[in-house]
Design brief:
binds 2-acetamido-2-deoxy-beta-D-glucopyranose; 7 helices; 642 residues; Leu-rich_rpt; elongated; alpha+beta; disordered C terminus; single chain; Leucine-rich repeat, LRR (right-handed beta-alpha superhelix); Jelly Rolls; LRR_dom_sf; 31% strand; 6-stranded mixed sheet; disordered N terminus
């Protein structure tokens, strides 16, 4: 199965013990998985521990090619060919409630001549956080995606969704706990948002570094800092210092001190500093800017003052790093939120007359709204349907049925209820293909799918269903009684399957039912009277082509309802009747023989033929009587003959 939860469970029992010990020491919860690895892995230089996932059966483990030097030095990956279905997930259990940085590195299969670079989508807890863009293998910082999420239900579900461009291939998954208020940016920040890292740059630094390499705090989520030596105008200068930095590793974000020991500063020829990046349009971004005065030429407040503009709009006015941080060699963090309508985000620092700008680090997050999930009750009902019908992998019934909305389970129709903010299932039939036709080839309804198995009784837990079409499959067994408890069912098409038994009386309770196709099954018995009555009211019901249905207009009338005693009575009566018939036919045959003989005599001219016939009759009667077992027949005999 592509859901890895079951097997992961065992590993995480062991892990939760470790977790208990670690909470005592108030260390963050950490889970690192090396995908496709047969054995646990330790990687240099920090001896980082990675769990193997080889026991898990979803997808296929393979040797990895790491497309970038940034990737952790892992040698295996797990990929999900289309035969695994379009949605594949790692479901990690026993994750303590908290705030986490979740990071996924992508890999390339290490097969010779492998040139199919996959493009796919990634979701965390049902929210799509990232779509790989073509050319990702050529950009070092595009080999992973990372997001800050709240995990509140004890689980982490991380799913990979095929888009028809190659097989998703995953090198590693990391779930790293961070402070509950990490990257708090103001009142709009809540547990319902997800911050996807769009850029994280260490300015004036030559080497890429993770927090661990920087000896940063464990609560920082082991951030990866891309190096940026220049903003590109060729007129900025890199600065660095060995001096210690005050107030760097503060709650809630715990930045590494080393982050503030390098910077870019502007020069006389080009006093403005500007950083430009590509973004997705019409999104909100949270921007975090880091400063520390590390340039020996600036010794006091007032010597370096600049405005910060984002896409031309002033975000911060008259920033004076020494004044605001309280000292030289002290960290200052500013954050702001912007809506970007175009495809570029430009952060520019515009110094006041006579001074220069400085910046040490930049972080840009895309603000995503976490998707509401599908009602749990309905998810578990669909799971049981999936098992009962042995649904093929191509249906992609992994993760959440309705979210991300770009990748719903095929065959399940989703509806979002605004008042309860939950998704529910209102149909098991037709998937409306999304506008994005790239997904179209993978989606299908549940009719004509060669489905086997049976319909489970808890299908009624999908209590918002309006239509079910399982037509033209090989589903067998009884029609579950409970279907009658789905109040709003309008269409029920179970035609051309192998359902047997009788039609449950409960279907008569479905007052909204307008189309009921039960034709082409092996159903027998009486059609519920309540359905028969409905026929008159313009609904379209089809019961033809079954083993033996009866009881409504158009079908044979059913036999009378009989008690066991009545059946015995009828049986006895029938046997007696049968015997009587046997005896009578014997009498008739004998008499006929006599008549024939008499006719032969009369043909010879005997005038008393009639009397003789009478005589032979008397003899016969006596013989029967003597046998003593056919008194009635013997007594009736003369009347039959005369
Ligand atoms: C992966 O590489 C190892 C050698 O490094 C080799 O023994 C193994 O067969 C490879 N596995 C696959 C699936 O190619
Ligand atoms: C980010 O900015 C908001 C308001 O602009 C402020 O309330 C918040 O404390 C800042 N967050 C941090 C961690 O500095
Ligand atoms: C961006 O934020 C504004 C105001 O907070 C909100 O109205 C808008 O819906 C957000 N846009 C997106 C794409 O989330
Ligand atoms: C159910 O699906 C079949 C095709 O497999 C279609 O012919 C039929 O009309 C559908 N039933 C309803 C009620 O839409
Ligand atoms: C229906 O078919 C199943 C086998 O598929 C059989 O076990 C069961 O007894 C049948 N039920 C009726 C009522 O004929």
């Amino acid at each position: 199965m592509t859901i890895l939860a079951l097997t992961l469970y065992c590993a995480f029992f062991f892990f939760s013990v470790t977790y208990y010990i670690s909470t005592l020491a108030t260390a963050p919860w950490v889970m690192r998985i090396s995908c496709g690895a047969r054995l646990d892995v330790h990687t240099a230089p920090t001896n980082t521990f990675w769990y193997k996932d080889f026991a898990y059966t979803g997808g296929i483990p393979a040797n990895a090619t790491r497309p970038s030097y940034i990737s952790p030095p892992l040698k295996t990956l797990r990929y999900f060919p289309l035969s695994s279905g379009p949605n594949n997930c790692y479901n990690i259990n026993r994750v303590p409630k908290g705030h986490y940085a979740v990071r996924v590195f992508f890999g390339l299969e290490g097969r010779p001549n492998f040139d199919n670079v996959p493009l796919f989508d990634i979701s965390i807890e049902g929210t799509q956080i990232f779509s790989l863009k073509s050319g990702w293998t050529n950009q070092d910082d595009q080999v992973f995606t990372e997001a800050l999420v709240f995990l509140t239900d004890g689980k982490a579900s991380i799913c990979f969704h095929s888009t028809g461009h190659g097989d998703p291939a995953i090198l590693s998954i990391e779930i790293l706990q961070v402070d509950d208020r990490a990257y708090y940016f103001g009142p709009a920040w809540s547990q319902g948002i997800i911050l996807r890292t769009a850029a994280r740059l260490s300015c004036g630094n030559g080497k890429p570094k993770f927090d661990v390499d920087y000896s940063g705090d464990h609560w920082g989520g082991d951030r990866f800092w891309s190096p940026i030596k220049t903003f590109g105008q060729g007129s900025d200068l890199a600065r660095s210092t060995e001096s210690g930095i005050k107030k760097a590793s503060n709650t809630p974000n715990f930045y590494p001190e080393a982050l503030y020991q390098t910077a870019l500063v502007s020069t006389d020829t080009q006093p403005d500093l500007a950083y430009t990046m590509d973004v997705d349009p019409n999104r909100n971004y949270s921007i975090w800017l880091h400063f520390a005065e590390i340039d020996s030429s600036v010794t006091a407040a007032g010597q370096r003052v600049f405005d910060i503009l984002i896409n031309g709009n002033v975000a911060f006015e008259e920033v004076d790093v020494v004044k605001m941080s309280g000292d030289r060699y002290a960290a200052l963090v500013l954050n702001t939120t912007v809506t970007v309508s175009g495809r570029t985000l430009m952060i520019s620092l515009h110094p006041k007359e006579g001074s220069h700008a400085i910046i040490n680090a930049i972080e840009v997050f895309e603000i995503l709204t976490a998707e509401s999930k599908t009602l749990l009750e309905e998810v578990s009902a669909l799971q049981s349907l999936k098992n009962a019908l042995s649904l093929p992998l191509r249906f992609g019934w992994n993760g959440d049925p309705c979210v991300p909305p770009q990748h719903p389970w095929s065959g399940a129709d989703c509806h979002f209820d605004k008042t309860s903010s939950k998704w529910f299932i209102d149909g098991l039939c037709q998937y409306e293909p999304s506008l994005n036709m790239a997904y179209f080839f993978m989606v299908s309804a549940l009719d004509k799918q060669g489905l086997r198995g049976f319909l489970p009784n808890d299908i009624s837990r999908l209590r918002h269903l309006q239509s079910i079409n399982l037509s033209d499959n090989s589903v067998r067994g009884a029609i579950p009684l409970s279907i009658g408890a789905i109040p709003g069912l309008v269409v029920l098409d179970l035609s051309y399957n192998s359902f047997n038994g009788s039609i449950p009386e409960s279907l008569g309770q479905l007052t909204s039912l307008r189309r009921l196709n039960l034709n082409g099954n092996s159903l027998s018995g009486r059609v519920p009277a309540a359905l028969g009555g409905r026929l008159l009211h313009g609904a379209s019901f089809n019961f033809t082509d079954n083993a033996g249905l009866c009881g409504i207009p158009g079908l044979p009338t059913c036999g009378p309802h009989l008690s066991a005693g009545a059946k015995i009575g009828i049986g006895f009566g029938a046997s007696v009747g049968f015997l009587l018939m046997v005896v009578c036919s014997m009498c008739w045959w004998k008499r006929r023989q006599n008549i024939l003989r008499a006719q032969q005599i009369s043909a010879r001219g005997a005038p008393y033929a009639k009397a003789r016939t009478q005589l032979s009759h008397d003899i016969q009667m006596t013989r029967h009587y003597n046998q003593g077992n056919a008194r009635t027949a013997a007594e009736n005999g003369p009347s039959l003959l005369s």
